[in-house]
Amino acid sequence: MDVNLTVIDKILDAEKYFDDLDAVIFDLDDTLYSEKEYVRSGYKKIAEHFGIPELADELWMVFENGGKAIDEALSSRGMADNKDEALHVYRFQKPDIKLYHGVGEMLERVRRSKKLGIITDGRPEGQRAKIAALGLEADEIIITDELGGINYRKPNKTAFEIMRQRLGVSFDRMAYIGDNIKKDFQAPKELGMKMIYFKNADGLYQS
């Protein structure tokens, strides 16, 4: 295991490793809040939009079984032609989500003594809506798609290089905290950053 990689199973434990850092950079989805909560919120918005309350549970059931929730749930109701409409509702929702317990207070403590950043992948409209719903504030927030499209998503290191420039902190005094072992830490490792892997048992991308 890389000496710069620390593994935690509770997000609040990350704070134990911040003492020798000048900047702490977080992932967003499944690191600061539950992405499943966002998915559930989207399904509820779709159900409300079509006036079919039970559709939310039908979507969630397909999702939990590994299927294509919107495609399959709508098709089973003879509503396949409404897919684009449902996707628009989902993607542009004002999500009903909240930070993991204690995370807001932890971020406030970080901001009192260090630079705080967020680097997140995803459609800008969705990520911006999540950030607003969670009331997140940081010295820098980078949504990788806004740098020029999906090619800038992790493991691309451009966002990390921009973050370092904007915060004015050397890579060896920065840490990245994320939940996706397959993509979150490739760039930080190449750049010589500290890395904290939140092994989130409830995350969407845990194998």
From the spread of the alpha carbons, the general shape counts as elongated
CATH class descriptor name of the largest domain: Alpha Beta
Distance between the termini: 18 Å
Low-confidence regions: none
Strand order of the largest sheet: 1-6-5-2-3-4
**CATH-assigned homologous superfamily of the largest domain:** HAD superfamily/HAD-like
| Alpha-beta content class | alpha/beta
Major sheet size, sense and barrel closure:
6 strands, parallel
CATH names the topology of the largest domain as Rossmann fold
- Assign a percent range to the helix content: 25-40%
User: What percentage of amino acids are in beta strands?
Assistant: 5-15%
Question: On the 0-100 scale, what is the average pLDDT?
Answer: 96
The secondary-structure element order is EEHHHHHEHEHEHE
Number of helices: 8
Number of strands: 6
Describe the protein:
The protein is of the alpha/beta class. It folds into two domains: 5-33 and 98-198, 3-Layer(aba) Sandwich (Rossmann fold), CATH 3.40.50; 36-91, no CATH class. The chain is built from eight helices and six strands; from the N terminus they run ββαααααβαβαβαβ. The protein has a six-stranded parallel beta sheet with strand order 1-6-5-2-3-4, sandwiched between helices. Strand 5, helix 8 and strand 6 form a beta-alpha-beta unit. Helix 1 (35-50) packs antiparallel against helix 2 (55-64). The longest helix is centred in the N-terminal third of the chain and has 16 residues, at 35-50. The model has no long low-confidence stretch (mean pLDDT 96).
